[in-house]
Amino acid sequence: GDSSNMRHPLTGGGMTVALQDVVKLRGLLREHNLTGVKDAWYWSRKGYSSVINILAQALYSLFSGEDTRLLQLRSACFDYFTYGPAVTDELMGMLGGILQRPTTLMYHFFYVAFLACYNMAIDAQ
Q1: What is each CA distance from 82 to 73, 109, 110, 123, in whole angstroms?
Q2: How far is CA 76 from the centre of its chain?
Q3: Which one, of 83, 59, 63, 74, lies nearest residue 113 by Cα?
Q4: How far is C-alpha 27 from the geometric centre of its chain's CA atoms?
Q5: CA separation for the pair 55, 61 (Å, rounded)
Q6: Measured between alpha carbons, how far is residue 22 from residues 28, 35, 81 in Å?
Q7: Is the pLDDT of residue 39 over 60?
Q8: Which of 4, 63, 96, 111 is 20 to 30 A from 38, alpha carbon to alpha carbon?
């Protein structure tokens, strides 16, 4: 996987990030001398590695937790998956390293959180 960073192996994101690192390093080695590559590489990889890191850890926490609130979030997450390809395509794109926008990740996180709140309000009635 990714020796420069740690993430839960649930999503297989380590290999995705490692392969993207190879591509990024190859390009940087063509553009910079060897001394400038490390800093340039470190900062340039934040976009793609952070989305995969956060998503992998969040999914692991969500599916391994037994807390009542996590169970409600997990249920909302499964409800969210039923919305179809508009949702699942973006999630898979983030897991696969194709979509690298943290704002897309935040959108999905907040949508699931609000869906959990909505479900709890409906259940309370």
Answers
A1: 14, 15, 17, 19
A2: 18
A3: 74
A4: 24
A5: 10
A6: 10, 17, 32
A7: yes
A8: 96
Q: How confident is the model at residue 1, as a pLDDT?
A: 40
Say how many Å lie between the first and final Cα of the chain, rounded: 47
Rounded Cα distance between 16 and 104, Å, is 18
Tokens for 97, please give them. 């390293």
In the block, residue with structure tokens 């907040």: 110
60-119 confidence digits (pLDDT tens) = 889 888 888 899 999 999 999 999 998 999 999 998 888 888 999 999 999 999 999 999
Q: How many helices, marked H, and strands, marked E, lie in the chain?
A: 6, 0
CA 123 to chain CA mean position, Å: 29
| Cβ atoms 5, 48 nearer than 8 A | no
pLDDT for residue 6 is more than 70: no
- Cα 76 from Cα 82, distance rounded (Å): 10
Q: Closest by alpha carbon to 86, among 70, 107, 102?
A: 107
Confidence (pTM): 0.78
